[in-house]
Write a structure and sequence with these properties.
The chain is mostly helical and about 200 residues long. It has two domains: about 55 residues; about 130 residues, no CATH class. The chain contains six helices and no strands.
Length: about 200
């Protein structure tokens, strides 16, 4: 017959064993939970990385598409007819330039070119087009345009109280000069045209 003391010892031993088993099980469960949490974090990090890469690729694709729209206009024969017509004007002073600005035959031609460069400047300033890419393709064209017009554009800003006039063309010019260096100044000779230009003859 088992006495009470022996039963007490057995119960105590059983309790210790159960407690040890419970402790070991808790440790294993905790380890598994940590492993699952780490795997979940790794999966989440990979998912975030993939999402970021996908966003970057989408942004690069949109930028490439946007640039091609800009470049499609740039390489058109019509663009170069307009550009050469504007660049070949003989402006002796602000009055000459301003007379062209209000000439119904010439003004739309110059506005078309100015708006094109302004639009590109806006896209670059908003980070939608790469400054370097625009500088590589359009650099000489824009710098030559701005060098010819800047004195008169700045004069018009003061006289017309319109400080924003041509601001994004100027911004684009400054960005290109920052990339290319202060010594960058395309030397292009244009033939002169008459003071009246028929838009239909472009």
């Amino acid at each position: 017959m088992v006495d009470a003391q022996t039963i007490g010892v057995l119960v105590t031993a059983a309790s210790v064993t159960v407690a040890a088993i419970y402790y070991v099980m808790n440790i294993r469960i905790s380890q598994r939970n940590q492993e699952l949490m780490l795997k979940s974090q790794e999966t989440s990090a990979k998912t975030q990385e993939l999402a970021l890469k996908s966003q970057q690729q989408a942004a690069e694709t949109r930028q490439a598409q946007l640039f091609m729209q800009v470049f499609n206009r740039y390489h058109e024969e019509e663009f170069w007819r307009i550009y050469n017509t504007v660049q070949s004007r003989d402006w002796k002073n602000y009055e000459d330039w301003d007379r062209d600005r209000s000439d119904p035959n010439f003004a739309p031609i110059r506005l078309s070119l100015g708006c094109y460069f302004e639009g590109i400047g806006v896209l670059v300033s908003r980070g939608l087009l790469s400054t370097e890419l625009v500088a590589d393709i359009l650099g000489g064209t824009l710098v030559s345009y701005w060098n010819k017009q800047c004195e008169y554009i700045k004069g018009f800003r003061v006289r017309a109280e319109y400080p924003q006039y041509g601001e994004y063309s100027e911004y684009l010019y400054n960005e290109i000069m920052r990339i290319r260096g202060s010594g960058f100044s395309p030397k292009i000779e244009y033939g002169s045209t008459s003071s009246k230009v028929d838009a239909k003859g472009l």
